[in-house]
Amino acid sequence: MTAMRICRFTSTGETVRIGLAADDAHLFDLTAAGIGRLSAVLDSDHPLGVLSGIDTQSLPRLALSDVVLHAPVERQEVWAAGVTYLRSKTARMEESDFSATAYDRVYDAERPEIFFKGIAEKVVAPGAAVGIRRDASWSVPEPELALVLNSRGAIVGCTIGNDMSSRDIEGENLLYLPQAKIYDRSCALGPWILVGPSEADVRAQTIRILIVRKGRPAFAGETSIGNIKRSFRDLASYLFRSQTFPYGAILLTGTGVVPPDGFTLEEEDLIEIEVPIIGVLRNPVVIV
Ligand code: DO4
Ligand code: MG
Question: How many whole angstroms from 259 Cα to the centroid of ligand 2?
Answer without folding.
Answer: 13
